Q: What sequence folds into this?
């Protein structure tokens, strides 16, 4: 969340930033709300100062009429303060609600644009495999090898739910172990987080669980409670240190969290969203860091490096996108997406899939945007002042999408699928075959 004072002092830049990020916000109204709040606070302070003066004068006043007049004035002032307090609380609530709509500022090097075509490819790794046969998509492979039961998932929970079976279960467990062990070696503390969080924590991270529109709401809310199912462990990891003052000597604090993730939006029907690619529930290993402002840029590059390391280890070609302003979301100052090559994604040509890249991870530097909402600050030993920390996040492995990439890239002409070498110790075999 941007501070009202920052918006007031950088009005033109904030307006331009909202335009670049395709966010409609009445920034001038925010300035007015802040002026109203400050005016009410000033009036309240002036009256309270007069109350303090009266509290000293009344005991010293001997003449009854004068004393009664001071007491009457004191009563009137108490009523005015109560009225102003109510107005001030409402003004503060209105201002906060408006501030929650304003996105973070943007890194000056982030591409300006509003469509996926405006994202900039900054790196490519690996060469897409050329098959000597017509490759099958992950759905056909999973059904032929008895790895996923989509019909049972729909019958039990609804469309876009599924049951993993046989080696798909082992692949999920292997991917979790592979990602966790990689991150532990990189110095990240392993965490298993709750799968639910309070509404105010989601709002602090940048989600809108109170969104009244079911078409745009991102998360599942739990009836008769202030809890939501989390869409990512970024929510719970970020909320883990809310309302704390951290010793700067202990920063950065780096965590790798494991959780289930729940998303209400599962995409429009189509080749690119079917099967496991876009679902309502999946398992994810997530990186999260708390840092000083001076550390956040280097940590952002570190998280991206680790994401690349994981997919290089899996042997899956990918490219890295510098995400354009219109696709950053609210909290991110800068975001990189890693898209893996998926041979059966994209258009069909002469009945054969052309293949395309699909997002498998992303990493964002959210600067102080989330931490200000969550009231997470840092302090240097021996100094009085505090400052807001920076937060960063990144996907290590979103299991379902990683399985999509593995099945499609490692399939063979006979319908079997080779297990990536780095996963074999946990899967326990080199090849997935028909039962």
A:
């Amino acid at each position: 969340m941007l501070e009202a004072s920052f918006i007031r002092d950088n009005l033109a830049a904030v307006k331009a930033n909202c335009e670049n990020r395709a966010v409609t916000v009445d920034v001038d109204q925010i300035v007015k709300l802040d002026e109203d709040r400050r005016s009410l606070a000033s009036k309240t302070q002036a009256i309270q100062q007069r109350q303090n003066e009266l509290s000293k004068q009344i005991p010293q006043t001997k003449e009854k009429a004068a004393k009664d007049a001071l007491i009457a004035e004191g009563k009137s002032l108490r009523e005015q303060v109560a009225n102003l307090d109510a107005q001030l609380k409402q003004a503060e609530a209105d201002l906060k609600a408006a501030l929650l709509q304003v996105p973070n500022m943007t890194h000056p090097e982030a591409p300006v644009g509003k469509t996926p075509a405006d994202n900039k490819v900054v790196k490519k790794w690996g060469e897409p495999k050329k098959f000597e046969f017509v490759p099958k998509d992950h759905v056909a492979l999973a059904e032929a090898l008895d790895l996923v039961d989509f019909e049972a998932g729909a019958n039990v929970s609804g469309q876009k739910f599924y049951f993993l079976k046989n080696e798909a279960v082992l692949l999920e467990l292997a991917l979790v172990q592979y990602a966790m062990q990689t991150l532990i070696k990189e110095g990240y503390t392993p965490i298993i987080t709750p799968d639910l969080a309070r509404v105010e924590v989601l709002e602090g991270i940048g989600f809108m669980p109170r969104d009244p529109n079911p078409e745009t709401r991102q998360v599942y809310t739990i009836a008769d409670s202030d809890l939501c199912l989390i869409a990512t462990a970024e929510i719970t990891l970020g909320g883990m240190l809310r309302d704390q003052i951290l010793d700067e000597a202990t920063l950065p604090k780096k965590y790798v969290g494991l959780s289930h993730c729940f998303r209400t939006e599962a995409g429009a029907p189509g080749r690119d969203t079917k099967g496991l690619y876009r679902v309502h529930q999946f398992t994810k290993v997530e990186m999260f860091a708390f840092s000083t402002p001076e550390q956040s840029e280097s940590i952002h590059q570190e998280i991206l490096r680790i994401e690349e390391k994981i997919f290089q280890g899996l042997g899956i070609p990918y490219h890295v996108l510098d995400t354009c302003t219109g696709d950053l979301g609210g909290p991110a100052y800068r975001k990189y997406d890693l898209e893996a090559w998926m041979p059966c994604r994209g258009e069909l040509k002469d009945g054969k899939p052309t293949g395309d890249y699909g997002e498998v991870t992303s990493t964002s530097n959210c600067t102080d945007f989330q931490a200000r909402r969550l009231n997470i600050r840092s302090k240097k030993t021996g100094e009085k002042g505090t400052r807001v920390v920076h937060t960063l996040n990144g996907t290590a492995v979103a299991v379902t999408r990683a399985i999509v990439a593995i099945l499609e890239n490692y399939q063979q002409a006979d319908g079997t699928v080779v297990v990536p070498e780095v996963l074999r110790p946990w899967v326990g075999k080199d090849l997935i075959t028909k039962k």
The domain at 116-432 is CATH 3.30.930.10 (BirA Bifunctional Protein; domain 2). The CA atoms of residues 41 and 229 lie 38 Å apart. The chain has two domains: 4-99, 116-432. The mean pLDDT is 94.
